[in-house]
Amino acid sequence: MLSPSTASRPRSRSRSTHARTFIGQAQGILMGRYGIGAEQAFDYLRRRSQQEQVKLSDVAHNIIGDQDDKNAAQSSDD
């Protein structure tokens, strides 16, 4: 029988994998938007996370959402 902590590991791994994916996407958006490198983009995410006292993955979600909103607005203008 699995212990509760063992049983939750796949779910935890899945969440962390999703968080890393979102962080990577946000890094890419920042790199394209500002012409910066991956390390600088990550530093930006980290600083903003600390300043706003929110999870880094939440900052990444916000950046991705902002980009999605911009893309939708551009599509509707076409």
Textual characterization of the structure:
- The chain is mostly helical.
- It has 4 helices and no strands.
Which keywords apply here?
78 residues; Arc Repressor Mutant, subunit A
Element layout with pairings:
Elements: H1 4-7, H2 9-34, H3 38-52, H4 56-77
Helix pairs in contact: 2-3, 2-4, 3-4
Number of strands: 0
In CATH's first tier, which class applies? Mainly Alpha
Q: H/E order of the elements?
A: HHHH
Helix content: over 70%
β content, as a range? under 5%
In short, what is this structure?
With 78 residues, the chain is mostly helical. It contains 4 helices and no strands.
